[in-house]
Amino acid sequence: MIDQLASLSDILPSYKKREENFINFKTFMTEERIKNIELMFRNASLLTGFKKGTFKSFLNSLKQDQTSFSIKDFDNTALKKLIDSKVVFQGDDVLILTTLNIKDKLKIPEIIEIIKSKIDGSMFLDKKYFIGKMTSHVAREFKRLFFFAAASMIVVLALFFRNLKIVLVTITPVFLSALITAGVLGLADIPINLISMVFIIFVFGVGVDFSIFLINHELRKTDNESNITAGAVIICAMTTIGAFACLALARHAALFSIGIAGLTGMITSLILALMLIPSLTERFINQGDKRSFNE
């Protein structure tokens, strides 16, 4: 059922396996055979000019009893990196990684049960299953985070404005900007990861500031008043946009995702706030709502 297997058992066999190997070795490497090997090496040394004690350590190793060895014996060998990639030490616990490839994925549950019955404390990780599980978990947490951020923002606006129409006008550009940001990233084939998700929420919070400043201006302004608030909002947004643009130029994947998510979100938040707040206020907010807000 297993197509390929990569295990440390060939390099670091179990104690039971080492006992079996030693018994097999002693059965094959008898004293008489060792004496014949010593004689052969002695004659070969005389013919080829090797010193008499050149092969002494090797011949002595054939005679000695079984010796224990540990993972530290491989520290100065070419196998060091391979072993380190397969072994994890955490206090008194040791985790050994064995990788395998299974052609028929439907047999995975059967194989897991067989291995668990033979090796106590076994843990299994399937890469595709792990990626899918983590993706669904992150998506679920992002939805919950987005919901709580939106709910808290609406509650604060409701307490401050005490007018449902004003609250709805204020949050409309914010929700649209979050939707457009996610859509633009999807169309650009830029994956929304955990880091970019967090910064979409960040832009969500910053974008509502633009709406608050502009809605306050619209509710308080007089007919002959110039729109200086919009200019201040634009300057504030441009400084933040510049910072995100620098991050978007980074080669590091995490910094790039932060930069592109923040850049897209800030631009859409600014444009939507400037376009929608004045028009929505004029269309849906009457003079009575303005008077009650200013009182």
Walk me through this protein's architecture.
- By secondary structure, this protein is mostly helical.
- The chain has two domains: 2-124, no CATH class; 128-294, Up-down Bundle (Multidrug efflux transporter AcrB transmembrane fold), CATH 1.20.1640.10.
- Helices cover 69% and strands 6% of the residues.
- It has helices at residues 15-28, 31-48, 56-63, 80-86, 108-118, 127-161, 164-187, 194-220, 228-248, 253-284, 287-294; strands at 2-6, 87-90, 93-96, 99-102.
- The strands form two sheets. It has a two-stranded antiparallel sheet with strand order 1-4. A two-stranded antiparallel sheet has the order 2-3.
- The longest helix is centred in the middle third of the chain and has 35 residues, at 127-161.
Main traits of this protein?
11 helices, Multidrug efflux transporter AcrB transmembrane fold, 6% strand, mainly alpha, 4 strands, 295 residues, 2 domains
